[in-house]
Specification:
The protein has 167 residues and is mainly α. Helices cover 95% and strands 0% of the residues. The chain has helices spanning 2-7, 11-144, 149-166. Helix 2 packs antiparallel against helix 3.
Length: 167
């Protein structure tokens, strides 16, 4: 019978082992599983909060990037508008300067032509006066003496010399 005792189940031992098992499960649940579960829940909450914050920051960064790209596009358009306006202004100023220079050149040319015409009239008047004076001198010399062929040639030569000196 000794073998049966070893293999047999003693009811008080079985009840004590079962009570011991329930007490251990209760103690583990209360003092180990609950605190570990609370720590795990806290960590899960913190991880969820960090993921939410990261998603919010990512969306904010995307919005900032979009605004930056929009501002850069606007700045590029504004720069090209300023450049285009400056080019148009430069072309306009160039045309104005050319018109002014042409007008001034025309005025100077007109003045120079008028001055040349005055100088020409003055020179012509001086030549006429000198020729008239020479003609009078020749006429006086002709009237003073009789003209021979040699005198005539000499008078012509003198007239040509005086005309050459006058011009």
């Amino acid at each position: 019978m000794q073998v049966q005792e070893l293999v047999g189940i003693v009811p008080w031992n079985f009840v004590a082992m079962m009570a011991n098992l329930f007490i251990q499960v209760y103690l583990l649940k209360r003092f180990l599983f609950k605190p570990v579960s609370l720590v795990l829940e806290k960590r899960r909450g913190m991880a969820d909060a960090e993921i939410t914050d990261a998603a919010r920051e990512k969306s904010r960064a995307a919005a900032i990037r979009e605004e930056y790209e929009k501002n850069m596009g606007a700045a590029k358009r504004q720069a090209s508008d300023i450049l285009e306006t400056a080019q148009k202004t430069a072309v306009h100023q160039k045309e104005e300067m050319i018109k002014d220079a042409s007008a001034q050149a025309a005025v100077l040319m007109k003045r120079a032509q008028e001055a040349a015409a005055r100088e020409k009239r003055k020179a012509m008047e001086e030549i006429k006066t000198k020729i008239a004076g020479m003609a009078v001198e020749i006429a006086e010399k002709v009237l003073e003496r009789e003209i021979r062929r040699e005198d005539h040639e000499r008078l012509i030569e003198e007239f040509i010399e005086k005309a050459g000196e006058a011009s």
